[in-house]
Design brief:
The protein has a single domain, classed as Rossmann fold (3-Layer(aba) Sandwich). The termini are far apart. The radius of gyration is 18 Å and the shape is globular. A 7-stranded mixed beta sheet has the order 3-2-1-4-5-7-6, sandwiched between helices. It is α/β, with parallel strands linked by helices.
Length: 254
Amino acid sequence: MLLHDKEAKAEIAEKWDESSESYDSHHGHGIQTDEEHDAWIRVLSRLLPPVGSKILDVGCGTGELTLLLAEMGYNVTGIDLSEKMLQKARGKAKSSKLKVHFERGDAEKLNSSDESFDVVINRHLLWTLHRPTEAIDEWKRVLKKNGKLIVIDGLWNDGSINHRLCRSVSDLFIMISERKDPRKGWYSKELNCMLPHPFGMKKEKAQEYFEAAHLRDISAVTLNDIRDIQRKHMPFSQRITYNFTYYLISGCKR
């Protein structure tokens, strides 16, 4: 049975609410080391406009990227569907004494006015969306002329036999060593059936979405160096599956 859009959004919010307590402890979500922190700054510094520009972080989660951008000197707003994720983000902003505005919002239907941001950015979001084409059009709407859209994403599961084998071994190690089910928290089958990219998104597909939105100066770079920094600090049970394609794609509004 297919879920209605309202039911799907409710399940998504519920799943991320459940994940909020442990989210930052997961490699690839929370920025775990100074080395990774500095690597992100190097990558983003090459793409972002002058300090002080307005940035919208869509699907900001616990605010890891939002706070990094604020630390770099940007005027940042973070939105997310999960109120518990936002509570974590607000607490972290207060602790770090960084000025960031967080609000609950839907990535596919923003509350922001037309042409109100210099940059729209998101990390690990596009692949999770039911309507990626409509979402990109919405992000483009709130960008100023010549504003930049930046998407950070990956193909987490390429469907290969090797990946399935590594995933099975990883799950077994986690169940034995951590006494928890690593599959807990995954979306329902009904929700996964609604998603066009339930296992992540190829870089080439993301580029197609950017081209369909008529963005200009589209550029894609791999983030395998950041992936490898994350990977070397992981326990073996996670490291054996951490070989996915990781990338950043950007484009400008005409």
